[in-house]
Amino acid sequence: MTPLILALIAGAVAGVSLGALGAGGSILTVPALIYLLGFTPAAATTASLVVVIVTSVTALVAHARAGTVRWRAGLLFAAAGVLPAAVAGALSARVPEAVLTVLFAALAALAGLHMLRRRTPPENGTVSGTRAAGAGAGLGAVTGFLGVGGGFLAVPALVTVLAVPMSAAVGTSLLVVSANALVALAGRAHSAVHLDLGLLLPFLATAVLGAWDGRRLATKVSAATLRRVFGAVLLAVAVAMGATAVL
User: Fold this and answer.
1) Where is this protein found (predicted)?
2) pLDDT of residue 152
3) C-alpha 112, offset from chain centre
4) Terminal Cα-to-Cα distance of the chain (whole angstroms)
């Protein structure tokens, strides 16, 4: 299978994940860029931010039309992560690639385990300004450092910290993810990373189309089923990346 075909398929899978769950797109994008398309870890995390921004905005438009975005809560949450995302994005360029790979594998494992959990967070609660700022800052740091959107962390945080109903958490998380990824990418603007646009652009194109399909898929397939499928995929990715980094 040619690299171009692999880029098209991998982009579609990442886009569907992001559109359906508000999460999982970037955490699938990075290993796909590294192991299928030959990007270095540094280039893959930077390219992932580009993919995350475009696909998240695309999926966000679809969710906004459906009225499932809590704009005030999302903007407040994202604002707390702006500075951490920028700082972490600048620092990531100084970290050895092997370390980035191991950390990313650990994060993928965490995301997979979270998605496989069957419990549903409560849809109400008291909003704590301190907890909201802490959660937003932590998510921003993860986004900047590892080049992931952090949707798998944003969704439960929005529900439990900002009392956003689960029905609106996915759409709102896309707003948070878009803002954090944009800031993180700006923080990497001066890093000397080569991006293969011949592969990145086809990947991005099918990711955008997949994001629209993911939104429609979310209305036809139960959220629990989608989470279990992507959770299993993420655990497999984590094991493969961890083994590669150690061996």
Assistant:
1) Cell membrane; Membrane
2) 67
3) 13
4) 26
Neighbours of 65 (CB within 10 A): 11
Packing angle of the helix pair 166-187, 41-65 (nearest 10 deg):
140
- Given a cut of 80, whether residue 4 has pLDDT beyond it is yes
Residue pair 163/124 in contact by the 8 Å Cβ criterion: yes
**Element at 93 (helix H, strand E):** none
DSSP-assigned letter for residue 162: S
pLDDT at 51: 85
Q: What DSSP element (H or E) covers 171? A: helix 166-187
Alpha carbons 49 and 180: distance in angstroms, whole number:
9
Q: In Å, how far are 8, 44, 51, 116, 220 from 207, measured between CA atoms?
A: 8, 15, 8, 23, 20
